[in-house]
Amino acid sequence: xxxxxxxxxxxxxxxxxxxxxxxxxxxxxxxxxxxxxxxxxxxxxxxxxxxxxxxxxxxxxxxxxxxxxxxxxxxxxxxxxxxxxxxxxxxxxxxxxxxxxxxxxxxxxxxxxxxxxxxxxxxxxxxxxxxxxxxxxxxxxxxxxxxxxxxxxxxxxxxxxxxxxxxxxxxxxxxxxxx
Length: 179
Prior knowledge:
The chain is mainly beta. The protein is built from no helices and 17 strands. The protein has strands spanning 10-14, 17-21, 27-33, 38-40, 45-54, 57-67, 72-78, 80-86, 92-98, 100-105, 118-122, 125-130, 133-137, 143-148, 151-154, 161-164, 167-170. The protein has a five-stranded antiparallel sheet with strand order 11-12-13-14-15, with no helix packed on it. Strand 16 (161-164) and strand 17 form a beta hairpin. The radius of gyration is 20 Å and the shape is globular.
């Protein structure tokens, strides 16, 4: 199954794997990738896994990112890849998993100097677990909050509520402190 495809390409599946053709029936992305292709960045980038033939059939390697010309943007070194956003200079930010989760840019530079055990996404935020503490980042990868057991450390007051030790409080009532 192809998770998301750009509007101008048609997904195809051959005995070699999955890819895309254009509306003139020309190969746009060579059908050699796994079935879980996901397109992002206005249809310009694709999260793919390479198809590998074996005696048992076709298996899939780790994930990577390619562009429309099949240039490798991120190498095929990751178990999971989650695109976060495109920065003003056109560089993408990703959460990648290879046992642990890391936030990197298109140049494979680590943006945050921690590795995380778990990741969750919701309400435009990224929740990352590191050594029993949850770190909450916005889509600009700016730290918004840090949760430690029953405590919360807020860096950005957004006029909403937060649950602390089972009590819902307006966020402006929570002490704004450094995390």
